[in-house]
Amino acid sequence: MSCLQTRKTTASDFDFIYNLHRQTFYSYVEQTWGWFEEIQWAGMREDFDSLPFEIVCYQGIDIGVISVVLDEKALFLNYLAILPLYQGKGFGTQILRKLLEHAAANGIVVQLNVMRVNPAKSLYKRMGFRVVDSDKERFFMEWRNC
């Protein structure tokens, strides 16, 4: 897995990211709120246009996407998705480990939210995140290096 890299997105990456979103989150969104194509597309378009995204690459192949936002208090993991073909192979763990190492070195808290029905919650717990709040649809999680 040492060939895992990220690159900045370009305008032409939107279709890849939206198709990835559809493949990885459709069932979770459908179970939680119902999947409405136009709402999902518009929401992803707005996020893509306003937030920093990076494409995750393995051996030169685009396999996922990550979006991390830094504010004065914390790193917020806004989005992380890996193509189904590459899930369960440690890529998510490797990406999170790198993010947490950066946060630890800079004394920064990492926050995220995850839909209750998304099994990624177990990965986050394994990586040391804890649930700090929740609502009907999501868990709000936080990682601190202490």
The major β-sheet equals: 7 strands, mixed
Strand order of the largest sheet: 1-2-3-4-5-7-6
Nearest-integer average pLDDT: 94
* Mass-distribution shape: globular
Describe this structure in words.
With 146 residues, the protein is an alpha+beta fold. The chain has a single domain (4-143), classed as Aminopeptidase (3-Layer(aba) Sandwich). It is 38% helix and 32% strand. The protein is built from 4 helices and 7 strands. The protein has a 7-stranded mixed β-sheet, with helices on both faces. A hairpin with a 3-residue loop joins strand 3 (61-70) and strand 4. Helix 1 (14-32) packs across helix 2. The longest helix is centred in the N-terminal third of the chain and has 19 residues, at 14-32. The chain is globular.
Task: List the main descriptive attributes of the protein structure presented here.
146 residues; alpha+beta; Aminopeptidase; seven-stranded mixed β-sheet; 4 helices; 7 strands; globular
State the gist of this model.
This protein has 146 residues and is an alpha+beta fold.
List the helices and strands and how they pair.
Elements: E1 4-8, H1 14-32, H2 37-50, E2 54-58, E3 61-70, E4 74-82, H3 91-106, E5 109-115, H4 120-126, E6 130-134, E7 138-143
Parallel strand pairs: 4-5
Antiparallel strand pairs: 1-2, 2-3, 3-4, 5-7, 6-7
Helix pairs in contact: 1-2
